[in-house]
User: Which sequence fits this backbone?
């Protein structure tokens, strides 16, 4: 109970969001509007203010990112090969399957779980992961999806376009601007810091309410076998690999290593469905996988937290 209690708010608020829509206290369109506000204003405010004021330990850098993203790439490749050779998928379907298996919900679920499970100091390493999360996964996913189906020049143009959209996305911009403020040593004046801080406090409750409402939109729609397989890769294989690299391969500050492991244990990202929609393939499997992985994460995340706070803390 001591492990579950800190993350109870992250469990109960989505339930409230779900029943607000289910009982028609709010329309799904209301939640779509809240989702836009959350992604374009509330979460960017949270990311900016915390990144701008964070104290980053010396020596943290490439090893931390390697400890997280090497396992992500390993899981992506394994899932891609499984889909291509055992499920007989084409490159696009194989890439969508691999994205679902390796793309973690680091913001909507990762933010509150990390905050409640490891404390406010853990938000800094989380932001480091988030800062290149979309770019890394979408870049790798697009390259694998376009293999043998498009020219190098066409692929390069598509990647350029995706990079431009990524850099202009509010979440990315907020992290870049916050990082620049942090590195410059500029102290934000009160009339700037205070309003952003107030806005940022609404980010996590809004994200959890939107998450609960999303269960009315993303439903189990068949393709159970690939959905379950993606969920197992995401909830089991990825955290095990990240834990191995974070605690046994690289020498990383405990809190940062713990954050990497906990973030990797989050369920499949809603953005993996966006990727499936982009290529118009495996949408039902990914939609089902999001629901299945989110449900089972209620079991696996407390287990991961328990391992972090008991076994890994003593290494």
Assistant:
């Amino acid at each position: 109970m001591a492990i579950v209690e800190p993350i109870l708010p992250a469990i109960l608020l989505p339930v409230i969001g779900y029943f607000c829509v289910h009982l028609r206290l709010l329309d799904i369109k209301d939640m779509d509007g809240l989702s836009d506000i959350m992604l374009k204003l509330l979460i960017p405010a949270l990311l900016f203010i915390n990144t701008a004021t964070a104290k980053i330990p010396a020596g943290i850098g490439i090893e931390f990112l390697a400890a997280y993203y090497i396992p992500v790439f390993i899981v992506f490749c394994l899932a891609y090969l499984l889909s291509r050779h055992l499920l007989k998928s084409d490159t696009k379907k194989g890439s969508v399957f691999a994205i679902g298996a390796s793309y973690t919900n680091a913001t909507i679920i990762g933010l509150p779980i990390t905050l409640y499970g490891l404390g406010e100091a853990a938000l800094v390493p989380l932001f480091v992961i988030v800062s290149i999360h979309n770019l890394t996964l979408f870049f790798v996913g697009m390259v694998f999806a376009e293999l043998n189906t498009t020219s190098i020049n066409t692929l390069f143009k598509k990647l350029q376009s995706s990079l431009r959209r990524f850099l202009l996305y509010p979440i990315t911009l907020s992290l870049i601007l916050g990082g620049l403020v942090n590195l410059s040593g500029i102290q934000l004046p009160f009339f700037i810091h205070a309003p952003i801080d107030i806005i940022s406090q609404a980010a996590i409750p809004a994200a959890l309410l939107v998450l609960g409402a999303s269960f009315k939109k993303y439903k189990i729609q068949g393709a159970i076998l690939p959905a379950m397989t993606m969920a197992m890769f995401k909830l089991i294989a990825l955290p095990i690999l990240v834990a191995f690299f974070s605690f046994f391969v690289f020498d990383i500050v405990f809190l940062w290593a713990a954050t990497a492991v906990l973030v990797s244990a989050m369920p499949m990202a809603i953005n993996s469905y966006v990727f499936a929609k982009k290529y118009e393939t495996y949408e039902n499997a990914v939609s089902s996988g999001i629901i299945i992985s989110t449900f089972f994460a209620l079991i696996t995340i407390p287990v991961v937290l328990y391992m972090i706070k008991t076994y890994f803390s003593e290494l």
Observations:
- The mean pLDDT is 85.
- The chain has one domain: 5-314.
